[in-house]
Amino acid sequence: MADNKAQLHIGDKTVELPVLTGTVGPDVIDVRGLTSTGRFTFDPGFMSTASCESKITYIDGDNGILLHRGYPIEQLAEKSDYLETCYLLLNGELPNADQKAKFVSNIKNHTMVHEQLKNFFNGFRRDAHPMAVMCGVVGALSAFYHDSLDINDPQHREISAIRLVAKMPTLAAMVYKYSLGQPMMYPRNDLDYAENFLHMMFNTPCEVKPISPVVAKAMDRIFVLHADHEQNASTSTVRLAGSSGANPFACIAAGIAALWGPAHGGANEAVLTMLDEIGDVSNIEKFVAKAKDKNDPFKLMGFGHRVYKNFDPRAKVMKQTCDEVLSELGINDPQLELAMKLEEIARNDPYFKERNLYPNVDFYSGIILKAIGIPTSMFTVIFALARTVGWISHWKEMLSGPYKIGRPRQLYTGYEKRDFVSVEKR
Ligand code: CMC
């Protein structure tokens, strides 16, 4: 690398590639000029590729740092709340008191969904996975809100963002109520964001119980801790879908689909399923051995991260919240004891140490959600609810500057051209 240029030698040719410097973080080699050589880079899984420029979130995986618009996640989790964090992600700055009041009121004005959207649910089996229903109903929003679909109009983009953040708790709770066969609850705008979600989840028209402030606070913190995480698989999916000009509701539905997998947002559900499978502290060693066995596809769910090679800072806050919630609610959960023992054994195991595999955010969030009374199948829906603001902030950022349709190339290793063979000769 010479000055701020990198040199690449291909045969007898030398290509000079600019080196871009961010505010913090490693320099990035700009390979766009390579197209003039007729060659491409090869990077499956984007291990060495920055797919975009962004000002929203910064992660230093080696040191366990996560910043939203420069603010550390620990400070936001402790001193802020979810809607304030949403404002920060969407607008770049923390709101003043007046801006915050207007934003909260704006969100509250959009919490209801079109009445006809309810009919959509009837097309799903009651035992459908909640994420399957979420993909469908969030995508369906684009069939209802035609007045905010012009992606080239900043005002439309703004309204779509507000609508999505406002309606996700309503839709998530509707999905849950549908699975139970209970009446869906309307949102209540006298409650705050997390309280309202818990009200729609757990109350019924014939019995409205007050929401515990401890539980509401924990719920809000879970939302803050999941609000954004840079260019992960689902956010990159939202950007890719958005780069073709697709409408925001369709893009978020794509993000929900990408989040569902157990290597990503589906891990919080998978952690609890795994703890159930382990069953007892005496079985931990056996499962840890399975996780280390390269011939066995089993992995310890809730461990490891593509970017964090140190403790996930969200997991630290989540563990603290987990302790608070369990002691406030007086819950003595044997699954938590099992989780703590598993963490201890895995963290002292050379295999996990050498590979820097620490518990991630999903390891503890499942235990808190379970303590709150949220069923396992809803865990990833809650992740999707909270991450919607991150997805839509990235989508808005991309659309507000110059961008190109995302279109990766490939290393083709299939057949060369060959002639068609008729069926009787095959
Ligand atoms: N259990 C056992 N071994 C593991 C685990 C695990 N949970 N995670 C990684 N490894 C091993 C992996 O087999 C590999 O070993 P080797 O070098 O001998 O081949 C090494 O550690 C490096 O892992 P990798 O698979 O190359 O790492 P990656 O960056 O491709 O994958 C990951 C990251 C999160 C997909 C993976 O760690 C994993 O599947 N973890 C379990 C699922 C999980 O908890 N996901 C939630 C992630 S945090 C929330 C979110 O982003 O949605």
From TrEMBL:
Reaction equation(s) it catalyzes: oxaloacetate + acetyl-CoA + H2O = citrate + CoA + H(+)
InterPro entries (UniProt xref): Citrate_synth-like_lrg_a-sub (IPR016142), Citrate_synth-like_sm_a-sub (IPR016143), Citrate_synthase (IPR002020), Citrate_synthase_AS (IPR019810), Citrate_synthase_bac-typ (IPR024176), Citrate_synthase_sf (IPR036969), Citrate_synthase_typ-I (IPR010953)
Lineage summary: Bacteria, Pseudomonadati, Pseudomonadota, Gammaproteobacteria, Pseudomonadales
The protein, known as: Citrate synthase
GO cellular component: cytoplasm
Alphabetical list of Pfam families matching this protein: Citrate_synt
Catalytic residue list: 305, 362
Pathway named in the protein's UniProt entry: Carbohydrate metabolism; tricarboxylic acid cycle; isocitrate from oxaloacetate: step 1/2
Leader peptide range in chain numbering: none
Keyword Glycoprotein: no
Metal-binding found in the keyword field: no
Keyword annotations from UniProtKB, A to Z: Transferase, Tricarboxylic acid cycle
GO molecular function, one term: citrate synthase activity
Lineage top rank: taxon: Bacteria
